[in-house]
């Protein structure tokens, strides 16, 4: 709201962006909604002794949870589909809409621009190369401005420095760079040679109106700079993790986000298991609101613990699957422990 009036940003854009963020809210709140809904129903049933009658009719705790699990299946499916399809797409559109309306580039939030590593086994001329690419501005349409590349050969010797004013991606694996200035470095002698007056390198500068650069860097990889890891789809996380590993970069944060995305729909069943003990509370006097509030606090604590373990796992280099599963396992054990204690 505080951006309304800046550049071309109007209240219509603010409303549209909030609507596009709705899938993310649905995805985040689905486990808490399942928990609060189940607690409300169980507390109401307990207040009228309905669940006592069911227990007297032979309903076991195991059968009750199996029934809850079947009810939670469509909720888990909605959470999974929202997190995999609707949320990443809507969030990406929301970000692009904001950047376009404000007339800013994506990388303008970083004073140093964006640095990306690019490794190729074959640059098109049969040579393996390694590049460090600096992108001055990354635009919402995934075009790039003021790009500088430092290219090294297989022996990690600097061979090219290129600067391009603009760049557009051409599928499947090329960038069309325009207004290019290249500095080509050629080794004249080795460090061990004693010809001190002979330069170590010779440099040749060239200017080209256009240059096509073969690269593994794609708009999908650049799109990862627009969206937080927990808002990316599983497929995009797989691709970005593969890119990071191929370039020998740290992928721990994205691996944790990947496993959290895989386990998160299962948290609906975890929350339902946590709600089941509320059915065994005999409260004819009501108290439904207090129990609903308790359920809300439990749900918020689950989200906080999920975030906390993601940061701790990234700092401590814990295995990503274990880091992502630990909050769910803890609350599942808590639910079954309470059920065993009350039952």
Strand-pairing-aware structural class = alpha+beta
> DSSP strand (E) fraction?
15-25%
How many extended strands? 6
State the order of secondary-structure elements, H for helix, E for strand: HHHHEEEEEEHHHHHH
Give the fraction of residues assigned to helices.
40-55%
Average of per-residue pLDDT values: 81
Total helical segments? 10
* Outline type: elongated
Q: Which segments are poorly predicted (pLDDT under 50) over 5 or more consecutive residues?
A: none
The CA-CA distance between the termini, in Å, is 50 Å
Integer tally of domains: 2
Q: Going across the major beta sheet, what is the strand order?
A: 1-2-3-4-5-6
Largest sheet: 6 strands, antiparallel
As a whole number of angstroms, the C-alpha radius of gyration is 28 Å
Explain the overall architecture:
With about 350 residues, this protein is an alpha+beta fold. The chain has two domains: about 10-105 and about 245-340, no CATH class; about 105-225, no CATH class. The protein has ten helices and six strands, in the order ααααββββββαααααα. A six-stranded antiparallel beta sheet has the order 1-2-3-4-5-6, with no helix packed on it. A hairpin with a 5-residue loop joins β2 (about 130-140) and β3 (about 145-150). The longest helix has about 40 residues, at about 60-100.
